[in-house]
Amino acid sequence: MSIHHTYTYGNFVLLRGQPFPFGASPVPGGINFSIYSNYATSITLVLFKKNTPEPFAEILIPREFRLGNVASIVVMGLDYEDIEYGYRVDGPYAPRAGHRFDKSKILLDPYAKSIGGRGVWGETPRDNDIYPYRAQVIVNDFDWEGDRPLEIAEEDLIIYEMHVRGFTCHPSSKVTPAHRGTFAGLQEKIPYLKSLGVNCVELMPVFEFDELDNPRHNPLTGDRLFNYWGYSTVGFYAPKAGYAATGRSGGQVQELKTLVKELHRNGIEVFLDVVFNHTAEGNEYGPTISFRGLDNKTYYMLTPEGFYYNFSGCGNTLNCNHPVVRNFVLDCLRYWASEYHIDGFRFDLASILGRDPCGIPLANPPLLEILAFDPILAKCKLIAEAWDAGGLYQVGSFPDYDRWGEWNGKFRDDMRRFLKSQGCLKDVAQRMQGSPDMYGRVGRRVSSSINFITAHDGFTLTDLVSYNEKHNESNGENNQDGDNHNESWNCGAEGPTTDIEVNTLRRRQIRNAIALLMVSQGIPMILMGDEMGRTQAGNNNAYCHDSELSWLDWNLLKTNAALFRFVKSCISFRHAHPALRSREYFRHQDYMGSGYPDISWHGVEAWHPDWSDETHTLAFLLCGKHAQAGTAQDDFIYVAMNMHWEPHGFQLPKLPPLMQWHVFANTWMQPPDDVYEPGTEPPIAEQNWIMVGARSVVILVGR
């Protein structure tokens, strides 16, 4: 930094800045601002006092202060706690050539660590605000009290996918009223998460986004609709101010860090759902917020005519494998890992990250490779949603570099088909082993498969067994939105019913789904509220509803107490048995000399599975002496699955002398006899066979 006070602006002394790091950083006596633009002809720093409509200074950054394509400046005498800043960037407006500069717009710094202007969820911004999203300057002085990422072994994870606002917004959450729908509210519910047994929360997008950018209204009620899920990022480095109880006063950074620290203190990892495939600027008709006005040609994939490729389904696609954009993504993830102690990232529509600037899939995508081998991210879990809206489906073939896991969409689909008696048993067997047919090649791990039956995008588990068709009329899109391929089954009646048999079957099907998920190899993920029977009334795309339709109704804990007990017990069972959390793929051999292979498949007759297409019965046996490749001893575990509409007797494999079969779960039985606490399982009266009811699952423990 130069010590010569060559430039002044009013009472401010201006110095040549440091080009790195990008963004705004406090330095002794002032603030360093650094911003990149390849094609800009001039860049002006615009300064506001916090919460004031007009700037108090607009400082043209001298050409001498530019190094390469980076403009940097130090403004002495600024109080970082009292200012907000943006940029005016001039350059050519030539859309066919990819340029959309507009000096009349004040642009958000892509590296802004905090964003003002939207501190309260749903609050309408000022009319005609010349700069609605305001970059703020922060100091990284949070006291972590020795906290660090937990680094839980991948195979030991149980992920709980959740929406920050929806988790505690309902009055029944009983969190402090001012904390409903916030990071602070979630923190109050950590004891609940701990009691459930999950050890990882995956937060749907928490980067700053505009919840008000949905123009539609609910045609059934007239209520306005929202961008509730948040998959439309405004600021990649800034936590959502509207998710903070302290957002109005700018406390979102501290509040989120406190949440992470407290989750870690309770043994729970934190994953972020990150959206690097597109931004909130949309297509050529969308708003100019940041990237478009800074360097449109660099940051976005453009057609030869200068329009936006739309592999995201949201109007634009980030040019992720451009070196500048690639570095931006890397810098961002490093920041969240180092400054927020984030344990892992789930990448929305991650197949886009492997496309070249023209949208062609790359064999060796530079961004995916650099993220896999980055030394700072080395212990972070990386999870891909291995498809995009442009038709690129890479489940099982995502470029993984021995690091990436995948949301296993085939597990979801195959298990859903099996639950409604339409599945191929050979496919089911592969999914429950961690999908070795997809991930079993050299270098990939069992934990490459993130197993789920439901997620935020689609039916809840209750709705999966209650509706044959989606019911999205309240979204205002004539029920045209949302996936039509749900593999759901309403069990005999569409939606709520008073039919006792239908409701009994639905409850059993929910328990079947949870049981199968928790005894499958790989990393299980459950959706917020499925453990207590949350419903969205058949809406499989509730992205726009900030209402009781999407909020978690905590009264369900009482209404569906038996379901909660079942889910909690299944989670405990998984934690208790290393045989269910293998690090290596099964060999189907007895390499420990136990007299049993590590896994064996069975049908209604022991040791003789029937793989024919018309069969709906299957069982498997895990030998605990093979658990974790022999590093831990476990019991025998036998799982019998009958998805036939009639009961079947299953012959049981014989155990070694002095051992007996004990029943952990039997979904045919009515609560409380449907499940037992691990370690308290009673022995079964008949040790040679067991009757498995229609459409039910039995889990036995041999000890």
Automatic annotation (TrEMBL):
Pfam families: Alpha-amylase (PF00128), CBM_48 (PF02922), ISOA1-3_C (PF21156). This is Glycogen debranching protein GlgX. Gene3D superfamilies: Glycosidases, Golgi alpha-mannosidase II, Immunoglobulins. One of its GO terms (biological process) is glycogen catabolic process. It comes from the Bacteria. The keyword Cytoplasm does not apply. SMART domains: Aamy (SM00642). Residues 470-495 are annotated as: Disordered. InterPro entries: GH, GH13_cat_dom, GlgX_Isoamylase_N_E_set, Glyco_hydro_13_N, Glyco_hydro_b, Glycogen_debranch_GlgX, Ig-like_fold, Ig_E-set. The keyword Transit peptide applies.
